[in-house]
Amino acid sequence: xxxxxxxxxxxxxxxxxxxxxxxxxxxxxxxxxxxxxxxxxxxxxxxxxxxxxxxxxxxxxxxxxxxxxxxxxxxxxxxxxxxxxxxxxxxxxxxxxxxxxxxxxxxxxxxxxxxxxxxxxx
Length: 122
Fold this sequence. Notes:
- The protein is an alpha/beta fold.
- The protein has helices spanning about 30-40, 60-75, 90-100; strands at about 1-5, 20-30, 45-50, 80-85, 105.
- It contains three helices and five strands.
- Helix 2 runs parallel beside helix 3 (about 90-100).
- It starts with a strand and ends in a 16-residue tail after the last strand.
């Protein structure tokens, strides 16, 4: 069993995955370089699934759809997922609707922006 972690609003506020856990982020593939640099500063080497959308095309709903797509693909591959840690209500609702086998831990706070912003953590 592995757990799945959102990046912004979960890992960025200090809720950390174990080595075998997976990160599914709504961040665009275009944000990969700065994201990998950030994860390296945290000592994280987990598998990360990025949104296939360009930065300017992504939305919160699209990020939720991306997460359900990846969760479904992982299930088909035989990966047993226990929990998704998520802080965006729009995204956790998408997961709950389309991936009922995943338990969603809802992280509620106002520490991070939910809309599409560039992330430069250094």
